[in-house]
Every structure is written in structure tokens, then in C-alpha cells.
Amino acid sequence: MTIKINHDLCNGCPGRKEGCCERICPGNLIERKQGKAVITNKSDCWDCAACVKTCSMNAIKIYLPEEIGGRGGNLLAQVKGDEIIWIIKNNSGKYKKYNLLR
Predict the structure, then answer these.
(1) Would you tell me how many other CB atoms lie within 10 Å of the CB of residue 24?
(2) What burial class does residue 99 get, using C-beta atoms within 10 Å of its C-beta: 0-12 exposed, 13-18 middle, 19+ buried?
(3) How many structural domains does the chain have?
């Protein structure tokens, strides 16, 4: 698995010394370059999903390979109050939602 950052959605957390994803990454693997978040070494990422949950722009997702996600897909998170909505979306566009309380 690996994270993917959508640079069209990433706003770089303007006005902050560090972006939310930079600050929360336990491996210090995310940094800003040219105002957008980038992962410095994908192979060092252990897929904790902290960056996925903290990104208010929904610009970060975890890619699920075929071995895990059937035909491959993506895992996204939406945080709403005390609830995290995990969305698994496969390559054909079908998705399932799972609501969890924090």
C-alpha cells in the first residue's frame, strides 16, 4: 500500500509553519515543496493513515493493491466531528462507506 497526494486538491495548509499532514506523520515522510505536500520516500511509509485522516482537503488517500482491495482501489477518510467515515473506492468507481466513532 502507499499514500497518494492529489496536488490539485492539496492547498498546502496556508498560514501554517507545517502542513497538517507534515506535522502528524510519525515517520516525518511528508514535506511541502512548491506549496504542496509530497511524500519523500513512499517505501518508508507504514500506512498508518494519520495523514489521510488529518487532511481537511481530502487530498490524501491510500492506494489498496489488488491483493487487498479486490481489483485495486483507494481508501479515503472524511472526518465529521467525532466520526470518521472511511470510504473504499475501487477502480470501477463503486464504493462502500464505513462510519466509525473516534
Answers:
(1) 16
(2) exposed
(3) 1
